[in-house]
Amino acid sequence: MRDAALIGPYLPDDVLAWDRGAPRSAQQFLADVSGLVETLPDRPAVLNLATNRYDFLVGFAAAILRRQVTLLPQNRAPQATRLVAGDYPGSYALTDRDNAIEGLECVSFESGGVDATWTGDIPLVPLNQVVAIAFTSGSTGRPRPNPKTWEALTAVAHATGARLGTKSGDRAVVLATVPHQHMFGLEASVMLPIMHGLVMHAGRPLFPADIRSALGNVAGRWILVTTPLHLRACVAEGLAVPDGGLILSATAPLARRLAEEAERQFQAAVHEIFGFAEAGSIAERRTIDGDRWRLLDGVRVVRDQSSYVVQAGYLPAAVRIPDRVTVDAEGTFIVHGRETDQVNVAGHRVSLGDLNQKLQEIDGVQDGIFFLPDEEADGVTRLMAFVVAPGKSSEDIQRELRTHIDPVFLPRPLVCVPSLPRNATGKLPREAVNDLVRDWLETQGHGA
Amino acid sequence: MEQPGSSLLEQDVAKLVVHTLKLKIDPATIAPESALFGEGLGLDSIDALELSLAISHTYGYQLKSSDPEIKSIFSSLRALAGAIQKNRTK
Question: Nearest Cα to A40, choosing from A99, A134, A100, A108?
Answer without folding.
Answer: A108
